């Protein structure tokens, strides 16, 4: 417990301020690259299913074709959901005003998405699937197939995240005054 407290204190005093001040723009860019790479995988899988007519089990995105275990690994999916959640939490304090509101919305949706992946992981680890299903199943997956559900989840997390980033780059004057990072573009003269 002392180690966790020490790490939390270090983040609060050293890493957090640097990440959300002088390194905020770079951290947001890295976060967006990770998110877009994940989107590319989902869009490739959707293209394989809906445009190329591949069976769902064969449609594994770009990385899943040479590495099929990636698509079936609940650890990998959970890990990505956790990275997304951590990114939203770690980068949150750099946002102000309207952009913070939109970032918080994306964070809230990602909390649910993360919980769904945690449920899937726990089922995979325990072998006890939701409602006796043959494979791990999330709550909303009881109503919507997994491929379409994850496209939807990614869209409803991505949309407010993009709005937050755009508003963060072009803040109002009162928002700009509260910003501690250099993410804002210069106002027109």
Automatic annotation (TrEMBL):
Keywords: Membrane, Transmembrane, Transmembrane helix. The chain crosses the membrane at residues 75-91. The keyword Transmembrane applies. This is HXXEE domain-containing protein. It comes from Actinomadura alba. The lineage of its organism: Bacteria, Bacillati, Actinomycetota, Actinomycetes, Streptosporangiales.
